[in-house]
Amino acid sequence: MSVVKSDTVGWLLDHQAYVNQSYRCCHHMPPDTRCCRYIFKAAYFDIEKPHIADTETTGDQETVCGDSRTKGRKRKRKRHALNQGEVEAQEYHKQVCLAIRSGTRKLIEQSTELGKQGIVSKVPAGRECIKKQISLVVADSMLVELCSMAKQMAQEQHQPVQVISDEADSTADLNLLGRLTENSTDCARIVMLMGQRYLLPPHSSFLLSDISCMEPLLGYKKYDVITLDPPWENKSVKRSKGYSHLFPWQIQQIPVPELSAPGCLVVSWVTNRQRHLRFVKEQLYPSWSVEVVAEWHWVKVTRHGDFVVPLDSTHKKPYEILVLGRYKGSSGRQNGENATETAIVPDHKLLVSVPCLLHSHKPPLGEVLKGLTRPNPDCLELFARNLQHGWTSWGNEVLRFQHLDYFQEFDIGGGDNDCCILRYQSSAPVIPPSC
């Protein structure tokens, strides 16, 4: 489970525990069968201290949500006139900062998990668990390049979904580029792509492609939940050669109406730039026939409950915005069940969690969206960089954080009797004693 604490202000989430509950795996290598469990390396969630000290001073004053506090030490800072975007961002922050501060404090103080161990589960220290150095996987940039190359190649149209079943002994011959792939088993499975190994959670499906090849998704399912984290254009992205972005008109061309079931809940991650927020609310959602129903915030904290950067930092904020909308397509039934377009979506909720140190590894939303859709909803994540149990994922880096090098393997025995414990269970993870 990802929800540690639920309250009227929102939820305290354990992203790390959610990831770790999904990866129980059987390696069938006759005559022996080896069973193991994978966990996401703990170092990627090991944020003990804020990235920046909690002081933002100008002269001898510290500003906290509009309140000035006298500081003993002065520090000179260069002043410059705020541009229009900075003024708008400042005004927006004034509107939300008090609710974010008080709501975050309330969730953390009420959590029974808060103590010496921090607010989220932590893998016990051991020989293989104490290493804290963060390293990126060499193959990270390969996926985008493969998708770009695939556009130059003749692709067979309308290829059927390739399904990994319990009867499939090997996944070596799968074509993972531009073709919808589904792991229909109760166990995690390992697939190969260009000599690299990737770990698929049980009952997950994905399409590795860029925005020019989304057709395989259109005939697969109609979704009750669609989340998207677009690569928004900004100055830092333009300076980076390894990170692509999309213009607003390109994002607008994504066929969300064709993918949406009646009453589909659409959730967009938005940066703190007000022009992006306005675009989603005033242009993007209306063009998709999606009505804005709520605005939430994801708040990033350390294991001990401090903001990862000061709430009033003038450079970055410890929160991101989520815009929730309801698809206003034709009413009806989805898979024999009534659509839930009339369910009221609460506004101004907080999602508080320790963030992953890997860029754009967002916390899971499935549990916090329960009750806002029909039971057992079909869910889709667009612009995904990792997979989720029970979800369909799409993007040109959809397998990025599924690379086996991001995980740590524990051997937990062999034989048929041991394999039964590898079946997926929606419960808190059990840390192997061998750690």
From TrEMBL:
GO terms for molecular function: RNA methyltransferase activity; site-specific DNA-methyltransferase (adenine-specific) activity. It comes from Chiloscyllium punctatum. Residues 56-82 are annotated as: Disordered. GO terms for cellular component: cytosol; nucleus. It comes from the Eukaryota. Pfam families: MT-A70. Residues 71-81 have a biased composition (Basic residues). Belongs to the MT-A70-like family. This is Methyltransferase-like protein 4.
